[in-house]
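User: Hello, can you help with two protein structures?

Assistant: Certainly.
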Amino acid sequence: MIFTKFSDRKFVQKLKRFPTRFRQRLFSYRFFAYLAILGPGIIAANAGNDASGIATYSSVGAGYGYTLLWVFVPMTLSLIVVQEMCVRMGVVTGQGLADLIREQFGVRWTAFVMLALLIANTGVIISEFVGIAQASELFGISRYLTIPVTAAAIWWLVVKGSQKRVERVFLAMSLVFFGYVISAFLAKPDWSEVAAEAFQPHFSLESGYLFTMIALIGTTITPFMQVFVQSSVVEKNLDKEDYPLVRADVIVGTLFACSIAAFIVISTAATLNKQGITELDSAATAAKSLAPVAGIYAQYLFAVGLFGAAMLAMGVLPLATAYSVSEALGFEKGLSHSFREAPIFLGIFSTLIVVGAVVALIPGIPQIRLLLFTQAINGLLLPIILIAIVSLASNREIMGEYRNSLWFNILAWTIAVVVSGLSLLLLGTTVIDFF
């Protein structure tokens, strides 16, 4: 790619010999180079702020106020580290995550991981359609109209569209998240209290607190994000020369997505928690509850954000699942292929869309319970994926000079150990409380 040459450090050093105007023009090309590569990191991170994520963040804000905001600081750093390893493996090896897991850990281990991902992702996909239904009903539109139409639209976009078109639409959908920033300011929180809680850790062994914390981690750092971001990098045919720009895409996308999640917690904490509303049965309930305190516009902004977020995740999640299963089984994959060329890949995607839409049409689905439970499963599955990612990114034979450095490896393993410890702690306290 012509623009990626401007990211080379030696080349940039040589530019210092040229006139300032010439250098400014060349450095402007770096910006366009970033725009050309822009996509996988931002889309993957924002897809984590889906209907289930919004419900989880709303529950965190309503139930615990600002006291869990501190989790976003280490969580953002952790997500950057994990996503960076995935895109680095993608540009170096030209293979997806499931491909590498199969080659390095064997078919049985791969089958177990893929089955777990399939079950967890199916649950989340259903929740995305439920989120779309509830968001549309806030505007007086029946779910029996919205769900089939949106399902058909996403299917048509992915199956009939090109990779570039799909990516552009997904990026456009990410713009709806700014609605949550506005909602947070309409809620008029005490910003000094917000800042204090964001940098003052609180910890409790109470099972509800631990469950919510793991659900928070599970909805922000989800296995499908790692699969999607690495597969997207590979499908765009990005290589080692593109690595600096791909890494920047991951960092920008993660900072944006985690900031949006924090604003959702802030808006619900400043309104619902302060009014004594600590339990929610859906993300739509959170939107309705904002109206008496923050005004009707906050409710509709919240609903628009919920609809757009669910639409984005409704496309990304089935794609990530189709990528992972197709890679694990060695089948042809990619958005550039037709049904005839990649029947398994597009068949999995289509099946997940149909299943999610049909189940979501069943009335009375307990969304919050489904979403928190699904995200907790993702939080428990995450250590398995993290161990595989860190092991692969540290492998000299696979990564060569691009393998994890000593200090980066220490940080990556620390993240894996801490997340694993929290998951086991949650499981232990849940079993104890049960008996």
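That covers the first. Now for the second protein you mentioned:
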Amino acid sequence: MLRLLRKLFRPRLRPMNVITINKKHILHNYDYLNSLQEPAVMFPVLKSNAYGHGLEQVVRILNKTDAEYLVVDSYPEYVIAKKYSSKPILLLWETLDENYKYFDLKRTTFCVYNVSTLEYLTDRGKEINIHIFINTWMNREGLDESQLQDFLDLLEKNPQVHVTGVMSHLHSADEVYYDQMDTQIQQFKKMYMEIINHGHTPLRRHIGNTAWIMKITDDFFNAYRPGIGLFGYNPLNSDDKAYVLGKKLKPAMTITSRVVWLHDIAPGEWVSYNHTRKTGESSRIAVIPFGYAEGLFRSASNRIVFKSWRKYFRQVGNICMNICMCQVDDGVSLWEEIEIVTADVNAKNTMYVLAQESGTIIYECLARLDKGIRREIE
């Protein structure tokens, strides 16, 4: 009771930085991607704080879908998904052996590619569901073909461990050329048949990500793992013939901040660290409490724009740890809301532009967003 009262009466502070998640766009993207691969099922991937969108918020939204699994990366993410959803959970990566005892085995399926992990799971003597993660030459994670026989031999001695899926990961699905994917697909099918020949009957077979969903149709695979597309971003290059399919995705994230200080500087004065930006005329500089600690890249300094009241303003000077500056006009006032990133794909301050001007990819821009920033669903 005391904890409830504290929760009810604690101050509800208004943050200066807010990430707003458009629920309708998330659900639109889910349904759209689903329609491209029917009758296969979708396992939405929510790793890295749901690609920066906020794991709790996205889990709440996906409760309205028919998702067979929610896919998370780690035990801390599992705890959040379990708290805010009753859906089954697929743990994408392995964890230390001693951590498996904390999972609810009735609603958790483990992706396993390590013989040592399998030995620990079998020693528990409990009914456990796993998806065998095989290596199809990405050579990052996954069970090598040379290790598969030992893995299957161990499974044969432990019928309480049930193989309910087989999975792998594509290394270049976002590239224009398809031949490398074909090679991975053939390797997957080869190793899958070895698993079948050992008497296993996995329900799900999955290797595809968002790019795959838009590029490949193969009835052999009956599940897919959309990540970046679920949040509205097209992973394909414009010269890919499947690029047009991604144009129907709707970005779900808007990032806003506030003007915390305004001051006028004379012509020829410098702005921020290292004097990388000099004004050519009298300028009004707005200070915004959003820097590289919040998720901007310092490499984007002097290269991006923000938006306020339908007008764009150039970010100027080196981006600092917790603040950055932009050059504004007299119409901008103290405490005014500034749009750092928009969900409007036709604007000049999209996540696409931020990634390009930062010299990186959208995935990294999203994953770097500070978890402490308030996330709100609209």
